[in-house]
Write a structure and sequence with these properties.
alpha/beta, Rossmann fold, 9-stranded mixed beta sheet, two-stranded antiparallel sheet, 9 helices, 23% strand, globular
């Protein structure tokens, strides 16, 4: 299976920064207060069927009986389970168990183990390796299997996981992973259609998604997605790996029509603003953007994983007021 569409994925160390000095408005959702203190757990799972390790970091509410809906998060190329902490913290504070996977073969070992002048080539090889494109969605499905075991016997999370309400989020290569789990099909020229979807997942968030190279058949590629999707990008969302333009990042939203779809485009947002990158690389707009991302994503999860009508109303009616001139927000609701 050729995966040329993965060219949009990128490593934060090489990302371009936004340079605006103006900070976006701070978005609040609900009461604006954290509801739960957050704990973390590390696991190093092993999938015997694939002879593959899947490290995870789990953010969870330390108090409360639950059960809590579950979010599985997939990092971008060159990332790890330690990344995107601001999202894990935000979601767990609002009553979710956020499970951050580490995908071996496309994690930080790709560039850490490469020579000083070989890091970008190593990243490109990883992005175009079909094994990584297949293993990532399978890691998600395996993680759900492991969570079912934890829910039965783990001393911390036993009977506290609502596995009837699972969401998947991801950034860049992780956004590909989320959309693959949601039902995006792959249509190689002259090849057989393939799918890595998992019907246990009820909603997804795709940040800075790469785009399928088979552009004439995008409607077909996204036709089988029947669950709600929240897409995110920015007007400076380019990548040093591949040639996906900011304008092309919206194509999954444009071509997915079988369920409720949302698209946030941050004005001046670059590819790595979604990652919670380190302080040395932080843009002046990061804090405000990440507040917008956290608030709107939490409302999306509440709307579709908790069936919260107020959350849906805030997302569809009120979020634009918080966004102001810092971006655009588009909605397609399935009738």
């Amino acid at each position: 299976m050729k995966m040329r569409f993965l060219a949009g994925v990128a490593l934060g160390l090489f990302a371009f920064l936004a340079h605006s000095a103006d900070s976006p408005k701070i978005a609040t959702y609900g009461d604006g207060e954290a509801k739960f203190e957050v704990g973390t757990i590390l696991h190093d799972w092993h999938d015997a069927k694939r002879d593959r390790n899947v490290p995870v970091k789990i953010y969870y509410p330390k108090s409360g009986k639950g059960p809590f809906p579950v979010i599985i998060f997939s990092h971008g190329l060159g990332g790890s389970r330690e990344g995107y902490e601001y999202l894990g913290q935000a979601w767990a504070k609002h009553g979710y168990v956020s499970v951050h996977l580490q995908h071996l073969g496309s994690d930080d070992a790709v560039w850490r183990d490469a020579g000083l002048f070989d890091k970008m080539d190593a990243m490109r090889r990883s992005a175009f390796d079909p094994a990584n494109a297949i293993n990532r969605p399978r890691d998600v499905s395996f993680a759900i299997d492991e969570l079912e075991k934890l829910n039965k016997g783990d001393s911390v999370l036993a009977k506290r996981l609502d596995l009837d309400h699972i969401g998947v989020g991801g950034h860049s290569f992780g956004a590909y992973t989320a959309l693959a789990i949601a039902g995006e099909t792959f249509l190689p020229r002259g090849g057989k259609e393939s799918s890595l979807a998992d019907s246990r997942v009820k909603a997804v968030i795709a940040m800075s998604a790469p785009v399928n190279a088979n552009r004439p058949r995008l409607d077909e590629a996204f036709a089988k997605i029947k669950i709600p999707c929240y897409h995110m990008t920015g007007t400076k969302d380019t990548s040093p790996i591949g040639d996906t333009s900011p304008e092309e990042r919206r194509l999954p939203f444009d071509h997915t029509n079988g369920s409720d779809q949302y698209l946030l485009t941050l004005e001046g947002g670059d590819h790595m603003v979604f990652s919670g990158r380190g302080k040395m690389l932080t843009s002046k707009k990061d804090e405000g953007f990440q507040k917008l991302i956290s608030a709107s994503s939490t409302a999306f999860w509440d709307a579709y994983l908790k069936n919260d009508a107020k959350a849906r109303s805030w997302l569809t009616n009120d979020f634009k007021k918080h966004l102001g001139k810092d971006g655009t927000f588009e909605i397609k609701l399935k009738k």
